[in-house]
Amino acid sequence: MLDILKSFEIFLQDTGGGETYLQWLLQAWGWTLAVSFAAWIVAIIVGVTVGVLRTLPNRYIAFIGNTWTEIFRNIPLLVQIFIWYHVVPSLFLSLKDLPSFALVFVGLGLFTSARIAEQVKAGIESLSKGQLQASLALGLTRTQAYRFVLLPQAFRIIVPPLTSESMSIIKNSSVAYAVSISELTMFAMQAGEETAKNIQMFLATTILYAVSALAVNEISKLIERRMQFKTSRVGAK
Amino acid sequence: MNLDFSFFTADVFSSFVLKGLLFSVSLTLVAIIGGIAIGTVIAMMRLSKKWYLQKPAIIYIDTFRSIPLVMVILWFYLLIPILIGKPIGVQLSAFITFTVFQAAYFAEIVRAGVGSVASGQMNAGYALGLTYAQSMRYIILPQAFRNMLPVFMTQSIVLFQDTSLVYAIGAYDLLKGFEVAGKNFNRPTETYLIAAVLYFVICFTVSRLALRVQKRIQIIR
Amino acid sequence: MKVFAVILVSLLMLNVAFAAESKTLKKIKDSGVITMGVRESSGALSYTLGNNKYVGYHVEICEKVLATIQKNLGLKKLEIKYVPVTSQNRMPLIQNGTIDIECGSTTNNIARAKDVSFAVTTFVEEIRIAVKASSGITDIAGLNKKTIATTTGTTTVQTLRKNKKATGLEFKELYGKDHSDAFLLLESGRADAFIMDGTILAGNIARAKNPADFKIVGDVLSVEPIAIMLPKDDAEFKKAVDEPIKAMMKSGEIAKLWDKWFLKPIPPTNTKVNMPANENTKAAWATPNEKPMEEYTVKN
């Protein structure tokens, strides 16, 4: 037992670059969180926009929204990331100097946006058609109807699926290592090779992934509870 | 940069890509069948009121759902040989990993599917003198599976796409097939684009199929 | 007849001696099987041709060693089981006895020598710099403020880190997920240099569309003795492996093997790695030793 504990002393060893493996591990965690968070922002903004567009009566706009969703949903994330990294810069040379961090979070964000768009569309469509008609009859514009009537209700419905998408972003950010971001998965493979202590490195990495995903889950539960509280109060009036 | 797709002949497809395609498809099929079988058992444990069945199921599901698949692939590839005392190839390792991993996701789908069947049905089963297990087996699960079919199909698309992650242990999947071809002919840009198109065609077809199945089920319901 | 008996008795005694002292040799003798750990793609050292067929410089050395061991043990038949290993699982597998001998591309260093044993060094790898021939970069100083590619999961990443600290140079690292990916970073202009094992650089350049576009420049950044890996604390087995290797070094056979794998066209594509044996490797052949990486010094 003591031996097992002692084997974790490896984290206090110098990596050769003037820092310990523990410091490197925490930095890698930072990269994972940074990629995930930036991608999440992109995913929410684009996902909600596309999701709303897909419910509009204009057939052309809806078609564009649907095409967007199908393209980003039906190609593996890894292939999409490689296309952003290797293909896009070779077609548009000006993008060559863009750091891989930007390419990865945009790629991961757009991939996830298709899934969120799907949830938003389903959320809005799950509301009865009468809601939109009633809002329009009250003299609200279509924008106002979405802003004040449809979206607030739709969001309550889609918070649970959004939670699982947000947790997926953290997990999916592990593909970033394929394009040179030193995040947790890259740390696990690299530090495992350098120290010949794969199990310890994998364990630390896995725990940090689980902690991150769990934190997202708890935050979402909090939001979910808040939203429910608000509605029940409105209903009570 | 001008693109040149002329190198990608039927011969290149059959000597580089086909092998990977077959592996990705068989990995998907094995993980679906194995995953649904194990997943159903775990879902039943999860729905059980006995803590010693429920708790392990919850741990199983939560663990696999909070770790990236790449890490799970790396873990299994590292641990299985140490546990059983002999190395297994990358392919077998991938089959085992995907089945065990997908089981956690399928378990949640099955649980939701069971929840989609009206609870009165279970009571009706009891009233007919069936046990819990019998009602599950003959009344609830058949309906649950029918309701779940579209979700299973959607999950299978995700699964098929995820097979590309076996690059972490160097298995030869569909994406690897394209990569090797791209490197041998020095046309990486073009091969990634062809790969994207092929994945899209396969996944899009299955997702359309899922939509049709869903419509038919709605009519039955 | 009498001579025969003497030979038989001495052979038997030899076997008893082996059996008493070496677990591995006893296992090989009893089962008639040896399990050899090999790599799927470690350059010309150890790689697969598909269909469970493994070849390469180290694989061939091991096969010759095993032929000698078979003769010494008096076995009529020795079956070699080839088991592909990775850099992640090769150490645990040799420790738990799954593989008896690993013929891949493992660096002999102090950390590993605590858990496993190494045969005499058969090859000394040098970490080098590959650049585009047109870049004008001639040494590591020329990499200041440049972007350098290397491969995830290799000790080179650590070497690079140490060099960065020691030289005070500023550069950005890019990590390819495998060697050909890292080479692609150099080829596509995303990186200005690719730093890796000399043999791997040479192999990638040889396979490039236009090999003349690239060259290997500057000093050696680090040297790593590569050796066949054996179970720890089995001196008798190590001796049985070392003796034939030393004999090959003495007779010049090992130099011929080098030429076969590193200078002549090799399967499956019949391209050449095109890498003559370096001075460190020749020194290791002249005076066989098992010095770990830490005992080598690099002239800068």
List keywords for this structure.
heterotrimer, A: 237 residues, mainly alpha, MetI-like fold, elongated, disordered C terminus, C: 300 residues, alpha/beta, D-Maltodextrin-Binding Protein, domain 2, nine-stranded mixed β-sheet, three-stranded antiparallel β-sheet, 11 helices, 25% strand
Structure description:
The complex is a heterotrimer of chains A (237), B (221) and C (300). With 237 residues, chain A is an all-alpha fold. Chain A has 9 helices and no strands. In chain A, 79% of the residues lie in helices and 0% in strands. Chain B has a domain at 21-173: MetI-like (MetI-like fold). Helices cover 81% and strands 0% of the residues of chain B. Chain B contains 8 helices and no strands. The longest helix of chain B has 38 residues, at 10-47. Chain C is elongated and about 60 Å long. In chain C, strands 1, 5, 6, 7, 8, 9, 10, 11 and 12 form a 9-stranded mixed β-sheet that branches. In chain C, strands 2-3-4 form a 3-stranded antiparallel β-sheet. Chain C has helices spanning 2-21, 23-31, 57-73, 90-95, 110-113, 156-167, 179-187, 198-207, 235-251, 253-263, 279-286, and strands at 33-38, 41-42, 46-50, 53-55, 79-84, 101-107, 117-118, 123-132, 146-151, 171-176, 193-197, 214-230. Chain C has 300 residues and is α/β, with parallel strands linked by helices. Classes of the chains: A mainly alpha (237), B mainly alpha (221), C alpha/beta (300). Chains in contact: A-B, A-C, B-C. The A-B interface holds A 70-71, 73-80, 82-83, 86-87, 90-91, 93, 167, 170-175, 177-178, 185, 188-189, 198-199, 202, 205-206, 209-210, 213-214 and B 1, 63, 65-71, 74-75, 78, 157, 161-162, 164-165, 167-168, 175, 188-189, 192-193, 195-196, 199-200, 203-204, 207.
